[in-house]
Amino acid sequence: xxxxxxxxxxxxxxxxxxxxxxxxxxxxxxxxxxxxxxxxxxxxxxxxxxxxxxxxxxxxxxxxxxxxxxxxxxxxxxxxxxxxxxxxxxxxxxxxxxxxxxxxxxxxxxxxxxxxxxxxxxxxxxxxxxxxxxxxxxxxxxxxxxx
Length: 147
Description:
It is a single chain. The protein starts with 5 loop residues before the first strand and ends in an 8-residue tail after the last strand. It is α/β, with parallel strands linked by helices. Strand 1 (6-10), helix 1 (15-31) and strand 2 (34-41) form a beta-alpha-beta unit. The protein has one domain (6-144): Rossmann fold (3-Layer(aba) Sandwich). It is built from 6 helices and 5 strands, in the order E-H-E-H-H-E-H-E-H-H-E.
């Protein structure tokens, strides 16, 4: 098994993301690795006029607060954990963070969308797997998995 030292953990605050964070904690303990929690926020997709009405500072503050909550829990298990909040297209910022943080593993949740929801929402995990220069471990919450 590869000796991982810097693990990037993209989080979206979903139940699947929480399962991925738990797996990342165990891997960090096993390898003595450092964790970086990453949340990418963006303006919801809709018309330009509607987007102007979104309170951007409030959205960023809410994202920061939620990320700080996750960090406070994780740092109890892995004291070397830090966090980053980035703005933009989620999969692109994740790929950027891999290089910026010199990560050697990405651990992330996948929602396993299919059909129309996958077509319209896309698959962040799939794009990261295809574009990542390092291994990506995708995790799906068992209770959310389809038979």
